[in-house]
Structures are given as C-alpha cells and as structure tokens.
Design brief:
With 306 residues, this protein is mostly helical. 72% of the residues lie in helices and 0% in strands. Pfam families: BPD_transp_2.
Length: 306
C-alpha cells in the first residue's frame, strides 16, 4: 500500500507542473489568444528559477524569477500578436524555438550545479495520517496552490464581472470594444498572467520536481499543457483533472518499472504523449461539442478600427 501512496503523491507533484501551465494557457485562450510558446517560456523560466536558487538559496525567489521570465516573454509575444497583429501560431512557435535555444545557451554553466537540500513540507496533524498523509498532505505548497487556483478561476470566470469581461473579449472582441472595453489591454493582461503561470510551472519543475537543470528538461510538457486546454474544454476543473490524469500516466511508467513488470522503457516513456494524441483524437470526433465550449474568437486577430 505504501507504494500506491507514493504513486498518488508523485502523481500530484507531476500533475502540478501541467496544471499551472495549462491553467495559465486557459486564461490566454479565454481572452481569444493562442500561445504556442509555452514550451519555450517554461524552459526559460526553469533556468531562471534554478539559477536564482543556486545563487540565493531561496526557493521563493526562484519561483518569482521564473514567473518574471515567463511574463516578460509573454509580454513580448503579446506585443507582437496584439498590437502588430502577427500570426499567433507562427509567433508562438518562434517563441518556443527561441526559449529552447536561449535556455540551453544560458544554462550551460548550470548543468553540474546542485541545489541546497530540499525542504520537506507536511500539513500539521493530517500529514501524519497513515497512507493518506504521505499521499495527500506532505506535498509542496504549490501543489495546493494549483488546486486553489483552479477553484479561484472557476469563480473569477463565471461569477465575477472582470471574468465576464474577459470571456466577452474572447467571444466577441468587437462587441466588447463597442461597449468601451480596452480589448487589447485586456488581452495583453491575460497573456502576461498566463505567461507568469507557465513560468511558475517551469520554475517548479527545475527547483522542486526535478531539482536540477538539463537542457530541454521540460520535454514536451508545454505542448501537453496546451492540449489540456482542449481536453478540458476550456473549463478550469476539467483542465485540473486532466493535468492530474496525465501526471498519473507519467508516473505510472516508473511505478510499473518498480514493480518489475517487463515492459520496454521506450513504450512507457511515450505513454503520456500517446495518451495526449488519443484524447485529442477522441475529442475531435465531435467538433460541435468543441465549438460550443471554445471561445468564438480564439486565434483570431482584432483590429479596433475595423
């Protein structure tokens, strides 16, 4: 049973990386912006956070550095796509490629660096509960933050005036503009907020989840996070559930190897990506369902003068 408790704990930790990034991308897409640069932003944030902790020994400064890196790259993406009306998909791909190359260059000197001993967290009383304690209540605070963030986004998007305005910008920016809302600035704020969350995911990856720096260590998680927004039909609770589902698939390969099941490691490594393809293929069989849930102006440029 202890091994299953460890599997649950590892699933929550792995899913947190995907949850933070996919919830950030959800905010972008609710405003009508598609950012394919999540992979690059997460890589730059990972090295920014890791390098900050190496020099300061403070994890929270590392998280702040990661968020700042993600926000700056997202702001550059927003300026290009929202004000200069560059193609969102091409610009996002360029950002992803830039982030991969830039992080590899900056991180050359940090490949052999080691972080200080990682602190252990436990919820008082609950953390000592047999089985449930190690599985659920000895997690890093950012694991609980991701769950709280999803709950807050549900309230924000569907119960607050600001969330209604954000969704209206994603549904019909011309109508929001006619009502006097600054559509471009709202979209830029959503893009920066999404970038900061992707940055937090990248920093969590390099500082807590795998406390080291390796070139390309995000390893496709940015693309999975992007797919999760569609998998979750642009709803925070479903996106969070999908993140932990894919986190569980990722951890399952190590659990199976640990139990001695003779399965080729290459097959186990490809499981998360195979699951992503299968889920997207199944969802795509019902395009009407996607159209009902997808923001109507997703990926479409907005020209205030038109």
């Amino acid at each position: 049973m202890d091994s299953y408790a460890l599997l649950v704990a590892a699933t929550l930790s792995a899913g947190t990386v995907l949850a933070l990034a996919s919830l950030g991308l959800l905010v972008n897409e609710k405003a009508g912006i598609v950012n394919l640069g999540a992979e690059g932003m997460m890589l730059c944030a990972a090295i920014a956070g890791f390098a900050t902790v190496v020099h300061t020994g403070n994890d929270w400064l590392g998280f702040a550095a990661g968020m700042a890196a993600g926000a700056v790259l997202a702001a550059a993406f927003g300026a290009l796509t929202i004000w200069l009306n560059t193609n969102q998909y091409a610009t996002g791909l360029a950002l992803s490629l830039f982030g991969a190359g830039f992080s590899a260059f900056v991180g050359i000197g940090y490949v052999q660096e080691k972080l200080p001993p990682r602190p252990q967290f436990s919820v008082p009383v609950l953390g000592d509960t047999p089985l449930l304690g190690p599985a659920l209540f000895q997690q890093h605070p950012l694991v609980y933050f991701a769950i709280a963030l999803a709950a807050w986004l549900i309230w924000f998007l569907y119960r607050s005036r600001a969330g209604l305005v954000l969704r209206s910008v994603g549904e019909s920016p011309s109508s929001a503009h006619a009502l006097g809302y600054p559509v471009r600035w709202i979209r830029l704020a959503a893009v920066i907020a999404g970038g900061a969350l992707c940055g937090l995911a990248g920093a969590y990856l390099s500082v807590i989840y795998t406390p080291l720096w390796i070139e390309g260590m995000v390893a496709g998680k940015g693309w999975i996070a992007l797919a999760l927004t569609t998998f979750g039909t642009w709803r925070p609770a479903r996106v969070l559930l999908g993140a932990y589902l894919f986190g569980g698939v990722t951890m399952l390969q190590f659990h199976l190897q640990g139990t001695g099941i003779d399965v080729p490691s290459q097959f186990l490594t490809m499981l998360p990506y195979l699951a992503t393809i299968l889920v997207l293929a199944l969802i795509s069989r019902n395009p009407a369902w996607i159209r009902v849930n997808m923001p109507a102006s997703l990926g479409k440029p907005f020209y205030p003068g038109s």
